[in-house]
Amino acid sequence: MDTLKIILFILFVVQYCDSANILYVVPFTSKSHYIMLKPIGLELARRGHNVTVITGHRVEKPPPNYHQYMVDEKEIWDVIGGSRPNVFKMVEISAEKFHEDVLWKGGLAFTELTLNSTQIKRLLHEDTKFDLVISEQFFQEALYTLAHKYNAPLVLVTTFGNCMRHNIVARNPLQLATVISEFLDVRDPTSFRARMRNWYFTMYEYVYWRFWYLEEQEKLVRKYLPDLPKPVPSLYDLQKNASLILLNGHFSFDTPAAYLPNVVEIGGVHLTKSDTKLPEDLQKILDNAKHGAVYMNFGSNVRSSELPEEKKRAVLNVFRKLKQTVLWKWEDDNLENKPDNLISYGFGKILEYHDINEETLSEVLHEVLTNDSYRINAKELSARFKDRPMDALETAMFWIEYVIRNKGAHYMKNPALEL
């Protein structure tokens, strides 16, 4: 018995000694972003680290070593300065226009909201030391200066896959002939036209970001963080010198690409552990679906209820003909002319938004539901995705803790950063 107590005491002391004080900066209020990012912070806390989180989403009943500082509650479109647009109408605008009107404008507004939030200002005035700063990489570069403020290594995590502008900054190979920018939608990435489009947009985004957007973020640093230790590195240099970047991708389902040792894929990090069960009413619906079920969901930022009337009518007419039970995430209380087999609860073929009509949607659904190759391919992809030495969350934990153990692990970076 005494031996067991000694072993338990040693294990506790070892865990305590290895624990780090981590600042986790994930303020963006989009639910889809938070679904991926939340498990990282909670798992770090579960492993004994003291985690302080800047967030727009509160975790109920968090562990005692998980401390939440909330961004002031405000709708993202209110932050940007306008009413919420119909996202379906935004498919008409170019990637360049989307950056200018939404991502850059919204990024600046939301970064300022974060730095000006009551609880965040209180945190930044506290006399706290951090061993590591982890920040989401999503148009909020001013927050990277917190790594400088606390003299801690910086880890970046993105809800996207391959990030072109970070590839340029970190001197990671661009591979523009095969790897498409995360904001472009091209049907044949290897065609000459697609490669030229990819090259042009990558250069456009980088130049605009490097020489205009970062300077606007620098203004926020000077306004809200005036007392940083001098000299203050540029936001460009802070991102360039990040110890690690974690990507939401994996070669099993994404385009294989070459990465530096400090660029790591953790796609599926939000799928690793879950104790949640389906709601009883939803589970009952699925159990009673004799012919299977079709699930339709456009995500947290796109509302099905805003579909143009002709698109909505085409979808409903197709669903009405299916023998399968249909579950469709619907945001309004009422859905007119809802077919009996459709329940609104708010690997296949791609059907472009412009091409959606009753005929094309019916063809695609019929193909996917009746051609067994899609089911087989989906199972094969699932097996490939799961066949890895560590699951995605364990991979993220290993490399984050590796950076902590090796005091930033600067030797993993490309020597070309010094050129």
Automatic annotation (TrEMBL):
One of its GO terms (molecular function) is UDP-glycosyltransferase activity. The keyword Ion transport does not apply. It holds the Pfam family UDPGT. InterPro entries: UDP-glycosyltransferase, UDP_glucos_trans. It comes from the Eukaryota. Keywords: Glycosyltransferase, Signal, Transferase. Gene3D superfamilies: Glycogen Phosphorylase B. PANTHER family: EG:EG0003.4 PROTEIN-RELATED. This is UDP-glycosyltransferase. It comes from Spodoptera exigua (Beet armyworm). The lineage of its organism: Eukaryota, Metazoa, Ecdysozoa, Arthropoda, Hexapoda.
